[in-house]
Amino acid sequence: MHAIIATWKMSYPSVCDAQHLLQEGAAAGDAVVEAITQIEDDPTLNSVGYGGLPDRDGHVMLDAAYMDGQTLRCGAIMSAEGIRNPILAARKLCGRESNCVLAGRGAELFAIEEGLPMRDMCTHASMQHWREAIRMEHRKLSAYRDHDTVCVLALDEDGGLVAGTSTSGLFMKAPGRVGDSPLIGSGYYADARYGAAAATGVGEEIMRGCLSYEIVSLMKRGASAQQACEEAMNDFVSRKLELGEDAGSMSVIALAPDGTFGAATTLDVFPFTVGNESGVHLCAVKNGVVTEVTEEEVAKLP
Amino acid sequence: MHAIIATWKMSYPSVCDAQHLLQEGAAAGDAVVEAITQIEDDPTLNSVGYGGLPDRDGHVMLDAAYMDGQTLRCGAIMSAEGIRNPILAARKLCGRESNCVLAGRGAELFAIEEGLPMRDMCTHASMQHWREAIRMEHRKLSAYRDHDTVCVLALDEDGGLVAGTSTSGLFMKAPGRVGDSPLIGSGYYADARYGAAAATGVGEEIMRGCLSYEIVSLMKRGASAQQACEEAMNDFVSRKLELGEDAGSMSVIALAPDGTFGAATTLDVFPFTVGNESGVHLCAVKNGVVTEVTEEEVAKLP
Fold first, then answer.
1. What are the pLDDT digits (tens) for B176-188?
2. pTM, whole model, 2 decimals?
3. Taking the CA of residue A193 as centre, how many other CA atoms within 13 Å lie in the half-sphere pointing to its CB?
4. Are A81 and A54 in contact (CB under 8 A)?
């Protein structure tokens, strides 16, 4: 039994490779890293890694996290610049008993000391996006301009269950802004006994509900991955509406130790990729229902 | 009905003042800020604010968080230098829809822009601690060398419920290290309907169990504050033991919307302060039992 689930259409190509690794017996952590590093390295995917979206000051500042559901250990970096593959830094931090979450310059020093590749993560296209934005005043910040955080959950043949996230965060964010992606329980959580979950969207909203931990907690209490995603999302959205807010922009995925998966969203359409013994499928939550995406629909998806 | 609970013996004097404010009808947030700023300003309390414990490179890097249980909004700063009262920065960030969690230089810029007082947070004593430590090689890092994170939970007459935390983090931590204190769900959580919780100890352990969110989640499901603290702590410690680890160094406090409180710890003794209509009491969890501390015992407490 193995399975992998990842956010957004952009994850499809790399999930195919990661699924192939799992099929050959690779560990869940290797599959997560394979899927995420490919996306980080692709300059055309402008919400993650190289070519990411700059902050208000024109710097591409990256967040990433990695959690091993068997040891319950995590590693994360936040607001870090110039680390070619943030997910590799997060994974290396995951084994540590102390100092497993590092911000800013400390995260960069760690990556350099560990010999991880460094690079200028800002592309010509990143800078163009930024210059356009600063020409427009009072621009309202929002996620989902193109796509968003890549979150990957993988289960391997040995019962290993791993969660990984990587993002450049909200476009035009304030310097030092940290979203949900590197925050355990909010952007990701994994417990090999009960399941794993991760979230993408506006981090400032997701963290208020600790959505990833809540989903795993519901799975611990007997909910399926799909039930847990829906219940956690519905509860939190109800609360937001009671507070006079709108539903916001949030999407979640979950993976159970039996390989079943779930997803929920406040968007009209939330695409994600699933890989398992039957192959790799591009799916979407549309009007609250999970369906496989047809060839014709692919181009229209975010 | 009003109540306040705070970690460690060091919180006793400032909780007396904060309790007085609540008695006079102040908002929970004002009580939390009163209790924490006094501790931040005291150079003799070397785990929080001015005179805090330096990181490996000799810098006093501060974490703080603030959460409003009525709006479910939070604000936090992490790995920030030179902000005289980190809790004030966290509280100011709490109202923001975007960019409410800031790391490093971004947090410092925010504080400066907001006109918050800045100062060199390193005292002669901080530097002496640091010089001694770097002379000793392979020193094992541990929390509780003296005291630790100050966490304050307050309930006001209008049902307001607020959580606040402030710390200089693990002594001799790696540059950029972030503990549980500024991480929502791990170091703190507050939901005015169900309760608030906060944690102190080794952040790298606390965050793996999202202990504060778990405690509030248990209260949501009907547990009392004390039951929730014990159940969350016992479950997580059992899991750590199954993983071949020791129980670790973790302590938690909780406050229910009816003013009842709870506490649990993996230490032999964990002192905390409680204020309510009956006055302010120094209490402790000893061998799993919460008791009021006698005059003779006070001097022996951490």
1. 999 999 999 999 9
2. 0.96
3. 10
4. no
pLDDT in tens, B69-109: 999 999 999 999 999 999 999 999 998 999 999 999 999 99
For the stretch B251-266, pLDDT in tens is 999 999 999 999 999 9
Q: What is the pLDDT of residue A140?
A: 57
Strand arrangement, sheet containing A195-201? A188-191, A195-201, A250-255, A261-265
**N-term to C-term CA, chain A:** 30
Q: Distance between CA B273 and CA B293 in Å, rounded?
A: 10
The pair of structure tokens assigned to B144 is 């509780």
Give the whole-angstrom CA distance, residue B86 versus residue B76: 9
Task: Give A100 to chain B, closest Cα distance, Å.
Answer: 7
A203 interaction partners in chain B (CB closer than 8 Å): 101
Test B102 with A72 for CB contact under 8 angstroms: no
CA dihedral B251, B254, B260, B263 (to 10 degrees): -10
Tell me chain A's radius of gyration from C-alpha atoms: 18
User: Which chain B positions have a beta carbon within 8 Å of A173's beta carbon?
Assistant: 98-99
pLDDT at residue B123 in the model: 95
Please give the Cα distance from A179 to A149 (Å, whole number).
10
Does A294 participate in catalysis according to the annotation?
A: no
Residue A117 burial by Cβ neighbours in a 10 Å radius (0-12, 13-18, 19+): exposed
What residue of B is the nearest CA neighbor of A57?
B106
**pLDDT above 60 for A65:** yes
Which residue among A98, A178, A209 places its CB closest to the CB of B204? Answer: A98
* Interchain proximity B176–A98, CB inside 8 Å: no
Lookup: tokens for A205: 């909203």
Of A103, A170, A217, the CB nearest to B104: A103
* Residue A123 neighbours by CB distance under 10 Å: 16
Encoded tokens for A112:
């350099």
Residue B48: burial class (beta carbons within 10 Å; 0-12, 13-18, 19+): buried
- 8 Å CB contact of B184 and A176: no
* Tokens standing for residue A26: 């690779």
What CA–CA distance (Å, rounded) separates B131 from B153? Answer: 35
Q: Is B89 helix (H, G, I), strand (E, B) or coil?
A: helix
Of B204, B217, B243, the CB nearest to A97: B204
Per the DSSP assignment, residues forming a β-bridge with B83 are B118
Please give the average per-residue pLDDT across A142-159, as a whole number: 82
Other residues' Cβ atoms within 10 Å of the Cβ of residue A297: 15
pLDDT of residue A144: 47
CA dist B245 to A16, A69, A92, A94, Å? 37, 15, 20, 16
Residue in chain A closest to B175 (alpha carbons) equals A106
Contacts of B252 (CB under 8 A, 6+ apart): B197, B198, B199, B200, B211, B212, B215, B229, B232, B233, B263, B264, B265
Residue ranges with strand state E in chain B: 3-7, 62-68, 73-80, 101-103, 150-155, 161-167, 188-191, 195-201, 250-255, 261-265, 269-276, 279-286, 289-292
